[in-house]
Amino acid sequence: MERWDRFSSEVSKIIMRAGAAIAVPLSTTADLEDEHMNIRSFEIKVSEVDLVTLRRRLEASRWPSVIENAGWQLGMDDGFLRRLIDYWRDQFDWRRQ
Q1: Does 29 map to a domain?
Q2: What is the pTM of this model?
Q3: What pLDDT digit, counting tens, does each position of 38-89 carry?
Q4: Total domains, the chain
Q5: Do 68 and 20 contact (CB within 8 A), yes or no?
Q6: Is 82 inside a domain boundary?
């Protein structure tokens, strides 16, 4: 029971923070336009450990059974997703991006 209480308490804190964030008055449209119209350079630093972990996760993808001829009718096309994962794992240059 103690673990559940701690979990419940943490969830409550998260919900309260989210509620507080939502309750903050929004800026005017003009403020948002000014803020978003300025282009600023930035640099993203991703550690090699994170990239290795990502590759391992991509390699460990668990695939559902394929429903023949479903295409995009029941969600993402299986063949497309598999090719995308292969590309991210084997070809995409995460450092260059």
Answers
A1: yes
A2: 0.51
A3: 888 878 788 899 999 999 999 999 988 888 888 888 888 888 999 999 999 9
A4: 1
A5: no
A6: yes
DSSP classification of residue 91: T
- Nearest Cα neighbor of 63 from 48, 46, 76 is 76
What string of H, E and C letters represents the secondary structure of 8-67? HHHHHHHHHHHHHHHHCCCCCHHHHHHHHHCCCCCCCCCCHHHHHHHHHHHHCCCCCCCC
Backbone φ and ψ for 31, nearest 5 degrees, come out as -60, -45
- How far the first Cα of the chain sits from its last, in Å, is 46
pLDDT, position 18? 56
- Give the pLDDT score at 52: 93
* 11-23: average pLDDT: 55
- CA distance linking residue 66 with residue 81, whole number of Å: 12
In a domain, 95, yes or no: no
